[in-house]
Design goal:
With about 150 residues, the chain is α+β, with helices and mostly antiparallel strands. The chain is built from four helices and seven strands; from the N terminus they run E-H-E-H-E-H-E-E-E-E-H.
């Protein structure tokens, strides 16, 4: 069965959240050639959360923003950019950055996995997120300014 696909603007408008946490994960393991895609674990299959909504063991929280923070408004504007130039790399994404959205009860309501190599995003519910190339550029710049180390 094919995954559902939605626009990044549609995605961000569909989430009722109180705060966002950003994470980096699979960083050291990815750059260690001896660990990449060993029989123990495929880095291509890893997401920020597992089916039980537990964070990936390699995850490191980088930043957090409340709904009324200016940073949230910036993120929403970035994700609302119209898709004019849809990236279409033929690689398999390795997610190393993510945003996790929480409600007022501190329950996770959604997670967005991001691969900046392939310019690809997917939610925790396996929904593919279409976004413009400019969205990825601005998102990368924004996350780097908050402490992410995206190449």
């Amino acid at each position: 069965m094919a995954n559902k696909v939605i626009h990044s603007g549609e995605y961000i408008k569909s989430i009722d959240f109180e705060y966002i946490e950003t994470y980096s994960f699979q960083q050291e393991a990815y750059y260690s050639e001896t660990n990449r895609d060993t029989g123990e674990m495929s880095w291509h299959k890893q997401r920020i959360t597992d089916p039980d909504k537990k964070l990936n063991l390699s995850s490191m929280k980088i930043s957090s923003f409340q709904f009324n923070d200016a940073d949230v408004l910036t993120l929403v504007h970035i994700l609302e950019i119209d898709v004019v130039n849809l990236p279409s790399w033929m690689c398999v994404p390795i997610y190393r950055d993510a945003m996790v959205f929480y409600n007022k009860k501190k329950e996770m309501v959604s997670a967005l996995n991001i691969c900046f190599e392939c310019l690809y995003m997917e939610t925790d519910k396996q929904i593919n997120i279409n976004a413009d190339e400019r969205t990825y550029e601005l998102l990368k710049s924004f996350l780097n300014s908050k402490g992410h180390h995206i190449r």
